[in-house]
Amino acid sequence: MSYRYEAKGPVLLANVKPIAFGASTPNGPIDILINADGRIAEVGPSLAVSTEVQRIDGNGAWISPGWIDLHVHIWHGGTDISLRPSECGAERGVTTLVDAGSAGEANFHGFREYIIEPSRERIKAFINLGSIGLVACNRVPELRSIQDINLDRILEVYAENSEHIVGIKVRASHVITGSWGVTPVKLGKKIAKILKIPMMVHVGEPPALYDEVLEILGPGDIVTHCFNGKAGSSIMEDEDLFDLAERCAGDGIRLDIGHGGASFSFKVAEAAIKRGLLPFSISTDLHDHSMNFPVWDLATTMSKLLVVGMPFDKVVEAVTQAPASVIKLPMENRLTVGERADFTVFDLVDADIEATDSNGDVSVLTRIFEPRYAIIGAEAVSASRYIPRARKLVRHSHGYSYR
């Protein structure tokens, strides 16, 4: 069946199976009629509607609340690694993108004007603790010293942009903070407490130690790259760290995948899930250096969690209900007449695709999520997985890498 179809309401979504709509999720296939104003007009099985309505037959595909990617980098033109929202948004089945700290207080106004406001996807953001954000990611670290942080300006920028900013982002690894260790996490937590918003912390090469970070965080805060395979930062190489992560997750600290180019391990994820420790949310950490290899897109990242043992329904919840709670996006009554339409239509299909984690380990994906449409208001956007281009060897001053 061809899915290269784009419509603007009124639209009838026919023969779709709801999932992840909470306790009120209907059983069995339904139809959804969306008015030209983008709001739900009618929901039910086999709706009889006017022939003037543009009909999209889901042929039994799944429909969920619109997928949310809780960790992307989309300050395109404002940082040297960011993608355009269109590269990882609606055309990949994702209706909400959450930028994880690309912009700091010094340049958030540009991110708002040139990215958030024009985008058809819903865009939210974690503001970087460092003033410059990820302007020249890693080449010019944003947290080298206390001079890189302006607490007063962060408070001012949040006040001016509270409808867009959902939290504070801190990258806590030695390639960013050097010998500063865990101190930036403490400063970020203080600001998050003042503003009553969560903090997302990147864990990586220690210091800071993953353990130290968890001990600072509280309920509602997020650890991204939770299943990384880096030496000194893997929850599976240290039983005390695993126990601490398990306890913190039980207390409401949210474990986020944040796949990225260096931060997801099949082995760590499979071992943790086998022991009952599931991630709270699944996100990609997509940027220009991770999209072509090894991440691709959110659907493929979801498929990777499926292959290491995460249940299908939990995977879908981890890109809908779970991240929605982080950004305070209401999820009740998403299938109610009068609500604005925000859905992802997708299939789960048999496959035989080799996928790679951030450590270079390969796993064969035998079942894969295939997005078909992103429904944003009255617009039905054809969606599909990203097909990576051939990798090329790039020379750097310190050696070579694949891009």
TrEMBL record:
Residues engaged in binding Zn(2+) 2: 169, 202, 225
* Alphabetical list of InterPro entries matching this protein: Amidohydro-rel, Deacetylase_Atu3266-like, Metal-dep_hydrolase_composite, Metal_Hydrolase
Every Amidohydrolase-related domain range: 63-377
Locate the N6-carboxylysine modifications and list their residues. Answer: 169
Keyword Hydrolase attributed: yes
* Coiled-coil stretches: none
Where is Zn(2+) 1 annotated to bind? 71, 73, 169, 285
Asked if the keyword Cell membrane belongs to this entry, the reply reads no
Q: From the Swiss-Prot or TrEMBL record, what is one GO molecular function term?
A: deacetylase activity
UniProt KW keywords:
Hydrolase, Metal-binding, Zinc
Q: This protein's superkingdom?
A: Bacteria
What are the residue positions of the site described as Transition state stabilizer? Answer: 171
Question: Which PANTHER family does the UniProt record give?
Answer: DIHYDROOROTASE-RELATED (PTHR42717), IMIDAZOLONEPROPIONASE AND RELATED AMIDOHYDROLASES (PTHR42717:SF1)
| Protein name (Swiss-Prot/TrEMBL) | Amidohydrolase/deacetylase family metallohydrolase
Provide the organism lineage as a comma list: Bacteria, Pseudomonadati, Pseudomonadota, Alphaproteobacteria, Hyphomicrobiales
